[in-house]
Amino acid sequence: MSEKRLKAEDIVKEMEENFQLNKIEELIKDNAIQFDYNEKKYRVRLLTMSEKDELDSLRRKKFNSMLQEKDEQGNYVYLKESALIKILKERGDVDIEVIEDKINKLNSEAVNLQLRLGEAISKNDNELVLNTYKDQIEEILKHKIPSLRTEKSLWLGFSLENAILSFVSQVITYLSSEVLEENKWVKVYKSFKEFQENQDEALMNQLAMYSMVLQPM
What we know:
There is one protein chain. By secondary structure, the chain is of the alpha+beta class. It has helices at 8-18, 24-27, 49-68, 81-91, 96-122, 127-156, 160-176, 192-197, 201-214; strands at 28-29, 32-37, 40-45, 177-181, 184-187. A five-stranded antiparallel β-sheet has the order 1-2-3-4-5. A hairpin with a 2-residue loop joins strand 4 and strand 5. Helix 1 (8-18) packs across helix 9 and helix 3 packs antiparallel against helix 7 (160-176). The radius of gyration is 21 Å and the shape is flat.
């Protein structure tokens, strides 16, 4: 697929930017999400059992292929996340465990601040105190933690596990996407190869985004 197409983590990020969580349920009707694009009606829906079997088969084949793939020098192209973390630390690039520890500490700090905010509300403290707690919580949850997670994702984006997740998100989008033709819902793409060769980036990203909303991995 084109590098412009959204990866799983990009889809989730765009989803969070474009949709309020309390409106997601409004989008889902009869286990599907419908939308209009270029004067046509599209939808993504939950996978059937046979489609889940197809997804599982494609995932196994892709996983086995990636495990064995080597470059011109005979080195494995894809490393498991644990191996990549070890190499990054040994080379002095980054210590992923340190990043994870920072994330855990920030999560704990946010919980503590939320408890203190609750106490302040119960005591009817003034708005300045309440807003201070709210700003600190927002800074942690919307800025500090996402920044660290993005850094971690950038370093581990090419691990075997993340490559598989990206592939699975593509297959889910391919299997669940339909278009309304002559009052009948039919597959947007006749094959996974056709899906991969599709050039309509805007449609592809919208289908992918909705498919992740409906059936997150």
